Automatic annotation (TrEMBL):
Positions of FAD binding: 329, 341-345, 382, 385-392
InterPro entries: Crypto/Photolyase_FAD-like_sf, Crypto/Photolyase_N_sf, Cryptochrome/DNA_photolyase_1, DNA_photolyase_N, Rossmann-like_a/b/a_fold
Record region (Disordered): 1-30
Coiled coil spans: none
CC per GO annotation: cytoplasm; nucleus
Taxonomic source organism: Exophiala bonariae
Listed name of the protein: Photolyase/cryptochrome alpha/beta domain-containing protein
Length: 403
């Protein structure tokens, strides 16, 4: 990334070609998606036609509720009912993009709830082949996810916590299967960390209401972003669309609220009797990748060597980078031959490493132990690149038509 101002594509509504602009104003889709569909960039099997300008304006004006607002409303409206539900036979943590034990907000809260109720904690990961297809997930990333799950399962087993990994063929069947498994395990509390994409936000909001119909409290927590979307506003009270002033506000906020970088401890161990109570759950194997997302044996050898899986590897790479390369990051990050980057992007994307952990460690390693917008200092420059991940998520939540 080149230093300087960076602006999200939000002040201008989605681009249209001459052909699209000539279409009637009440059209429900663009007419120029032939190539996108042909080459698989737009998958009509999963997604509706592109958004028209009128609908984008309705999001901006508030006429259409943003998905993040739908989730927030569901959280507020169901809070008292969820809090009133007693703990039953177990507590479930639903892993998604957070395949780690350390510094995992929802996992920590699930562990606390299980301990308070004197019941076991159960980990769950649901694989959706259709999501892999819809999101154009590369086979190498699918392989990395599955290998991370194997490490996570072993780490949890040391704490007598089972990890159930199951494939759900139809993506729309995933919420029902989640609740079905919770009923099997007599779990009245589910915890998960929010995913901020449009479909996922709407799914979580719907699940929060539907789960209560079955006497289950579905709890969604903020974890992926260092600063929760919506907490940073411009001088006019709205969402920043330019990165530089947003980043300065982000640094100031975290300096003022340093506790938001505090780590969440790993979950407490289950009672040893959990293995007798749920013996079949500890025998769960990690499924193979869907046939369309499999690597060749040669590719597996190559990528397993390049990207060892698991949060231990992620933490090792983080500590090595902070010790050896971060000081010169501002000078070497754009030199492909210089090996000057952290090579942590796959781990941040898979959730084997929390962005909060990264920022906290870099801050403590920095000369002034504070977050700044100094682009001539390696630690600050690298923290700024991690902050960009937060920025785009904030933009996506506020302007959900971004693509």
């Amino acid at each position: 990334m080149v230093p300087g101002k960076r602006k999200a594509s939000v002040s201008v509504l989605p681009m249209q070609t001459k052909k699209a602009r000539a279409a009637p104003s009440n059209t429900n889709q663009y007419k120029d998606s032939t190539d996108e569909i042909k080459y698989g960039i737009v998958l009509r099997k999963f997604y509706p036609p592109e958004m028209i300008d009128d609908r984008a304006r309705d999001y901006i004006s508030g006429k259409i509720e943003r998905p993040i607002e739908t989730l927030q409303k569901a959280i507020e409206q169901t809070q008292s009912q969820r809090d009133a539900l007693p703990t039953a036979g177990s507590v479930v943590h639903w892993f998604k993009c957070d395949t780690r034990l350390l510094d995992n907000n929802a996992l920590h809260q699930a562990s606390k709830k299980a301990k308070e109720g004197g019941v076991p904690l159960i980990g769950l990961y649901l694989i959706s082949p259709q999501d892999f297809e819809a999101h154009l997930t590369a086979p190498v990333r699918v392989d990395f996810i599955l290998r991370n799950l194997a490490v996570l399962r072993n780490d949890l087993a040391k704490l007598d916590i089972p990890l159930v990994v199951e494939t759900v063929e139809k993506r729309r069947a995933l919420p029902a299967r989640l609740l079905e498994l919770c009923n099997e395990w007599d779990a009245k509390h589910i915890y998960c960390n929010a995913e901020y994409e449009v479909d996922e936000l709407r799914r979580e909001a719907s699940l929060m209401v539907k789960s209560l119909e079955q006497g289950i409290a579905f709890n969604v927590l903020h974890d992926t972003c260092v600063v929760e979307p919506g907490k940073l506003t411009s001088g006019s009270g709205g969402q920043f669309s330019v990165y530089s002033p947003w980043h300065r506000r982000w640094c100031a906020y975290l300096n003022e609220h340093a506790n938001e970088l505090d780590p969440h401890p790993i979950p407490q161990a289950n009672p040893s009797s959990t293995r007798k109570q749920f013996p079949q759950l500890f025998d769960c194997r990690i499924p193979d990748a869907p046939e369309s997302k499999r690597l060749s044996e040669e590719e597996k050898v190559k990528f397993h060597s390049m990207w060892p899986a698991g949060e231990h590897e992620a933490l090792d790479r983080l500590h090595k980078f902070l010790l050896e390369r971060v000081v010169q990051y501002h000078n070497t990050r754009n030199l492909p031959s210089g090996n000057g980057t952290s090579v942590l992007s796959p781990h941040l994307a898979a959730g084997t490493l929390a962005a909060r952990t990264v920022v906290r460690a870099a801050r403590e390693a920095a000369p002034h132990k504070k977050l700044t917008d100094d682009r001539k200092q390696g630690h600050s420059m690298w923290i700024g690149e991690v902050a960009w991940r937060d920025f785009y998520t904030h933009v996506l939540c506020h302007w959900p038509y971004i693509w």
